[in-house]
Amino acid sequence: MVYAFNITTLANVSEVSPTRTILKIEKGIITSFFVNFPPGSAGLLHLKVLREFSQIFPKTTGDFHGDDRYFAYRRLAYPVLFAPSELYAHTWNVDDTFAHSLDIHITVESAGVII
User: Fold this and answer.
1) Rounded distance, CA 93 to CA 10, Å?
2) What is the Cβ-side half-sphere exposure of residue 104, based on CA atoms within 13 angstroms?
3) In the chain, where are the structural domains located?
4) Positive or negative CA dihedral for 37, 38, 43, 46?
5) Which of 12, 47, 66, 69 is deepest in the core (most CB within 10 A)?
6) Which pTM does this prediction carry?
7) Taking the C-alpha atoms of 52, 107, 90 and 69 in order, what is their torsion angle to the nearest 10 degrees?
8) Is 96 exposed, middle or buried (0-12, 13-18, 19+ CB in 10 A)?
9) What pLDDT was estimated at residue 80?
10) For 31-54, how does the pLDDT look when each residue is reduced to its tens digit (9 = 90+)?
11) Three-state secondary structure along the chain?
12) Are 89 and 20 in contact (CB under 8 A)?
C-alpha cells in the first residue's frame, strides 16, 4: 500500500513549536520513504518524521530541507506492527512571508509478505 501526504506549513513556524501532522498508515513494514521539496521553499521548510517519540526519518539528528530536492529511501524494513499505526511529521518554516509545502510517499507491505 502506498500512502501520499502533502503538508503545508505556514510562515514563521519555529523548530521549537513545529506543525505536527499525523500520518496514518496500516500496520506492516515500511519498505520505502520519499520526500519531495518542490521548487520555491529555498531550504526554509524543514521536516522530521517520528514514530512515538523517536525520530526515524532522518534517523540521525537533523532534518530534511531543500529546494527542488527529492529524498528517496528504498529497500527499507522498518516495522510498524502495533497500534497506533501512525507516524508524526514535524515541520517548520523559517520563511517570514510565505507558506511552503512538501510531499511524502510511504510504501507499507504487510508483515507476512516480508517475513
Assistant:
1) 7
2) 26
3) 2-114
4) negative
5) 47
6) 0.92
7) 150
8) exposed
9) 93
10) 999 999 999 999 999 999 999 889
11) CEEEEEEEECCCECCCCCEEEEEECCCEEEEEEEEEECCCCCCCEEEEEEECCEEEECCCCCCEECCCEEEEECCCCEEECCCCCEEEEEEEECCCCCCEEEEEEEEEECHHHHC
12) yes
What's the full length of the chain, in residues?
A: 115
Cell 523548530 -> residue: 15
All three cell numbers of 36, joined, read: 519531495
